[in-house]
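Propose amino acids for all 111 sites.
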């Protein structure tokens, strides 16, 4: 994870299979086999997706006998949500300013 607590969470969430895995882990911790059930990918592929999610800080794992149990990291998910909320609030302010005529018609630096 980087300084803002997000790591490469957005990149990790770009893949639909990884979003499905996160959705399942939001219900409860699971092992790879449970996560792979019903997915159109192999257990090996699920393990690779979990590695990416773990590297992004979105999931953690713990040994349970011979299995590894994966858990959603609520702190990292909250950091993504906070970042998205910031973008949303900025967009709303910009829209409000544009509609009310208060917006500076010049493009912002870096736009």
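Proposal:
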């Amino acid at each position: 994870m980087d300084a803002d607590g997000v790591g490469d969470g957005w990149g990790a969430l770009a893949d639909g299979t990884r979003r499905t895995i996160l959705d399942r882990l939001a219900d409860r911790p699971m092992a790879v086999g449970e996560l792979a059930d019903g997915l159109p990918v192999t257990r090996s592929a699920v393990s690779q997706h979990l590695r990416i999610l773990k590297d992004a800080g979105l999931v953690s794992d713990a040994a349970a006998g011979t299995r590894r149990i994966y858990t959603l990291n609520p702190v990292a998910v909250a950091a993504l949500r906070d970042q998205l909320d910031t973008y949303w609030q900025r967009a709303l302010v910009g829209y409000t300013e544009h509609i009310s005529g208060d917006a500076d018609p010049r493009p912002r630096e870096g736009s």
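Strands lie at 30-31, 59-64, 67-72. Confidence is low (pLDDT under 50) at residues 1-6.
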